[in-house]
Design brief:
It is built from four helices and no strands. By secondary structure, the chain is mainly α. It has one domain. It starts with 28 loop residues before the first helix and ends with a helix.
């Protein structure tokens, strides 16, 4: 290992932006995705399966810690789950449309 010393390369700074990108999705993103999928599936899938899909979206939202940030929409989705299980698909659709507007509007 004796011999010629290794050449030292000068340190060259990499260009960096001043701001780091926001990689975290918007609050309630998982809930919004679930509501959109269920709205698209109303009429073609069983009400029990749609209610399970909404419960999964609520669980993912809770796992991300977003439920407190989208409480009104999460409560509406819970009501829609109960309506779907009771067989009131038309009323559940209206509640899900309201939840969708809360999730996709400004502030979420």
């Amino acid at each position: 290992m004796t011999g010629r010393p290794r050449p030292v390369r000068p340190w060259l700074p990499r260009p960096r932006s001043d701001e780091l990108p926001d990689l975290q999705p918007r609050a309630g993103h998982d809930l919004l995705t679930g509501v959109e999928q269920v709205l698209a599936g109303l009429g073609s899938a069983s009400d029990r399966q749609l209610a399970d899909d909404l419960k999964g979206a609520l669980a993912r939202t809770a796992a991300c810690g977003d439920t407190c940030r989208v409480r009104a929409a999460a409560d509406a989705v819970r009501v829609a789950v109960d309506l779907l299980l009771a067989g009131a698909e038309d009323r559940a659709r209206a509640v899900l449309i309201e939840a969708h507007s809360k999730l996709s509007g400004p502030g979420c």
